[in-house]
């Protein structure tokens, strides 16, 4: 098949975010690109889907010199994948890429990540998928150093497909191209957020809170994504969507769950 | 320790939903109960958290004859767990229970589930946690047949704790007590939703969509949650939050990811 691969692009920072614009510019060199992305930032949306409200999904022109078809969607990243594959595209895409996220989706952040929920949604539908994230939350983040790695990882996925039941969670350190040591296949570091709630009063005197927190990595083991990123490697974690803790099943079978 | 266990209760259908009221009535018999639940339905919210908006979390009285402390929160189920453990409770709870959800969280629904995101959030924080769901979406669902099973499963978790790195996803068939055959420890069935988008025009002539779909179970293997539920068993799936597809790592290490 000489046909160019069909690549669906989405993100969770919104269709105009610099990260997705950079990702589109790379994907253009690898295949036929269609963009279906949220009309506004959707960070921290996890795997939310829109079931109690309607969805808008309209063609838009972000770059008037581009011939790529782009659609702006009122829903979440997972909604974008669902509507993209079912309503917008006339055939199943060969690849879904999501990002490049402004900020980390390494370790436990994968659970809260809208970027990765899009990749997982595609994975469930049987589409190879990659979520890309740069550890820089700024809208002025420099995505250039990611280019050759995004391209190489994407080419490998287009060439090999992905092992069944997983998608890729790729994170980039904040570093110059020359400082990045390479790509490491990793496991998700065992970490958590230590929440802090900033309590304030609104002008009417009602208390409210802002969620903030500190990322705590208790995982001192080898081969974690956090460790790789700290050492200026690009981390690649295969992420599964069968959440069954198979090893725990035996333990539970020894419990008195029945009379 | 003779002290009663401290049990945090939440859900995703909102604090007044019949399912959580039933769950509270059972938990009262097992420990000291505190409720922190969304002020409105949050179904399909996945593991969303509120990071770009403030959160309200106010004490409320739903049942004036009850002495249980209850808080109504403007956020998602995961937010409720975060604010409950960090701001409301003065010690770490011994257990988090979420539900009883009006509708299935079996199989791949676990990924979209607000009910289960609360349980996973607690699990990440090191708190044993269970999400309960009944396969009846109606607000008039009959939760009585679940009572003895909810109690027994909860007692087993309080007694044994949970294997590290997992929480429980418990689903109930729609059946009379006498018809329920028992409890089965299961794996997550490999299934997906085949989306259908219902396209309409709003009064101004702009197109919009309603997401709907059909649940497709292609998993003909043994020991799935869907199979157990079809046979009128209560399904218990241990759910992990290390999403690493460990077996895929070797495959990826054979790729040309570096020069």
UniProtKB/TrEMBL annotation, chains A, B:
Cofactor note: Binds 1 divalent metal cation per subunit.
Short name of any one Pfam family annotated for the protein: SurE
EC number per UniProt: 3.1.3.5
Domain Survival protein SurE-like phosphatase/nucleotidase residues, every copy: 7-195
Entry GO CC: cytoplasm
InterPro entries in the cross-refs: SurE, SurE-like_Pase/nucleotidase, SurE-like_sf
GO terms, molecular function: 5'-nucleotidase activity; metal ion binding; nucleotide binding
Gene3D superfamilies xref list: Survival protein SurE-like phosphatase/nucleotidase
Reaction(s) catalysed (UniProt annotation): a ribonucleoside 5'-phosphate + H2O = a ribonucleoside + phosphate
Similarity remark: Belongs to the SurE nucleotidase family.
Biological role stated in the UniProt entry: Nucleotidase that shows phosphatase activity on nucleoside 5'-monophosphates.
Name of the featured protein: 5'-nucleotidase SurE
